[in-house]
Each structure stands twice: as C-alpha cells, then as structure tokens.
Amino acid sequence: MRTTLFLLPASAAFVLAGACSPRPAFKPVASVKQLMQATIEPSAEVVFEAVGTIISAGGVEEIAPKSDEEWATVRNNALTLAESGNLLMIGDRARDKRDWMKMSQALVDVGVTALKAAEARNPEALFQAGGEIYEVCQQCHTRYRTEGRNHE
User: Fold this and answer.
1) What is the CATH number of the domain that holds 57?
2) Cα(9)–Cα(77) distance, rounded to whole angstroms?
3) The pTM is what?
4) 110 backbone dihedrals φ, ψ, rounded to 5°
C-alpha cells in the first residue's frame, strides 16, 4: 500500500511534466503563393464547379454531384479549403495579426460551411457556400494582393 501511495504522486508528476513539455514549433514549408496555387485555388475550383446551371440550346441543365465518389471529392476539397485557412495563419505567412487573421479565419468558416453542405448532399447550400468562399477570397485579395507580388 505504501508503494502504491508513493507511486501515485510520482506518476502524476511524470504525466504533468509530459503535458508541460514544449511542443514542436510549426515549420511552414510553402509560401502563401504556393499554398494558393497548389491547395486553395484548386480546392475552391472544385467547390465552385460542383453545382450550377447550364443554359444551352437544348434547355437548362442543373449540375450537381451525383455519385458517392463525386460528393466525397467535393467534401474533401471543402475540408482542404477550410484547413488552408489555418495554414495561412501560421508563422511568417500571417501578414498582420488583425485583418489577415480575420480573413484567414473566415476562409476556415466558409470552408466548413461548404463541408457541411457536401456532407448533407445539399446542392443549394453548396452553391451558397461557393458564393461565400468567393467573397472571402475577393476581400483578402483586394486587401493583400498587390500587382507583381501575387502572394509571394
């Protein structure tokens, strides 16, 4: 019994020491421009092109994912888009601690909105989320993209 009572505080100290140890620092690898080209833009395009209306001489055709695989592709790209907002807030990518962080968080939020729409297989909600994604992207580009310096 004495051994058990002695080990209990020692075990607690060991666990707490592990919980308080320094965590490894994030090591951003890609520039903002590389993230935009490799991750954010392609993921946004998948969401944008997933739903819509085509008007042709043959009539009007509604476009929406039909198969499980198509919905999974949209879902995965919405998830990637949401997580990309987090990546924009790490390290030197953050241009400032105010608007940049708010706009990056807005990308997370609209990505989650698109994710939920895809999980619900709701074309109307996905279309709405696509519009919100566009607005968030435009606000950030208007504020931070300068000619010749496309997210370097």
Assistant:
1) 1.20.120
2) 47
3) 0.80
4) -70, -30
